[in-house]
Amino acid sequence: MAENKEEIMMPEENPEPQIYTLTDENGKESDFELLAYATINGNLYYAMIPVDSQLKGVDGDVFEEYVILKSVIDENGDESLESIEDDEEFDAVADYFDDRFDEEFNYDE
């Protein structure tokens, strides 16, 4: 049986965030900051946050919701990032990122 390799990669600590401009199916461009990426069960996933989605709380903390996109390689070898359609797959990947972010950032609940 093949091993399901899981690993998470966080962008290197640097003052400049890694920003990517993505185009949706309607041709609208939006900027996203890369939080992390992971290979799970042989698939590559990216956790990203829309640059314009940062909201400040009362105490000044920034609350951010991230999106998860799946890397898909077409027949020409070109990569595209797509939403995860399968609920089970999405839940598993979201749980994985949530767990790793909790470990990385030591969230107190």
Question: How much helix, percentage-wise, in residues?
Answer: 10-25%
User: How much of the residues is beta strand, in percent?
Assistant: 35-45%
Unreliable runs: 1-5
The major β-sheet equals:
6 strands, antiparallel
Distance between the termini: 38 Å
Helices, by number, come to 1
- Structural shape: globular
Average of per-residue pLDDT values: 80
Order of helices and strands: EEEEEEEEH
Q: What's the Cα radius of gyration?
A: 15 Å
Coarse structural class: alpha+beta
How many runs of DSSP E, i.e. beta strands? 8
Task: List descriptors.
single chain, 109 residues, alpha+beta, 8 strands, disordered N terminus
